[in-house]
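Archive entry. Fields below.
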Amino acid sequence: MVFLTLPCWIRSRGPDRYWKVQELLKHARHFRGRKNRCYSLAVRAVRRAFVYATKARKLKKRNMRTLWISRIAAATREHGMKYPALMDNLTKSSVQLNRRVISDLAITEPRSFLSLAKLARARQQEGFRAALGDGSEPPGVFSRVVMLQ
Amino acid sequence: MSSFSRSAQQWATFARSWFIIDARMQPPGKIATMCSVRLQGKHKPIYHALSDCGDHVVVINTKHIAFSGNKWEQKVYSSHTGYPGGFKQVTAAQLHQKDPKAIVKIAVYGMLPKNLHRRTMMQRLHIFPEDELPDDIRANLTEELPQPREIPKKLSDYTQEEIDAFPRLWTPPEDYRMK
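PREDICTED_STRUCTURE:
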């Protein structure tokens, strides 16, 4: 007697399950516990990690901006001004530096930052003179805004 | 600064300074904000929450702290011992009587960020009720911070010449009786 149905029971699945599993486990190698070894647990953990990474790309932009702002605020307070005054007067003097650049200047180029702070303070004083005076004085040098065509 | 070498400049940027604040006749809240800013390192342009850039702060004369208004009688510090019926409420005056360092300590503790760094930052805060400092702390001090509140002069602090030179609206007659 020959068993003819036995060969039908042997199914050959795909040949490269090992590499597909390794591709997923490589993203889980730094996890804690069995999540870094066992595929079923790792699948869930890796999916969660990717979801967190996707959401964090928006949060990173927010966090970086708050960090820049707190660094600029610390640096301006060293020069006797406050952050809102600095940014307000820099935009009024049409200095279009963003917060990332200004915070980098505050760290690595302290004298350039000091010159920015003095510029902002001069523009602030001109603003006070314009507000408190009666308009007979000419506007200050920094209050002149150039409109480019 | 241009005379320092680059490595010396960097060493000075990342060094941990020791600040001293005199709390005589100052409101403890204002002292606490100054302390918390420097303990976190938020006064430095290189600040980052993870980079351990806080400095040491020494507060002296906390026994002579000055609350404004009626806060000595009205401000209440509450705590619970954990046992039933153990809810304790003390006024600021009673707490100051028991421990002159506690008011500033609790104020700074509440102003620091509520994470695990808070305890290390509190360890870098040194509070002394009077003027005396240990010699090793005194040797470490680098900068004195200005007081936040201008102390008003008492009448007994003015010299007689200044009192006489002050303009008078009217001079009372000899038989005038002050209340």
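CURATOR_NOTE: Strands of chain B lie at 18-22, 56-60, 76-80, 87-91, 125-127, 143-144.
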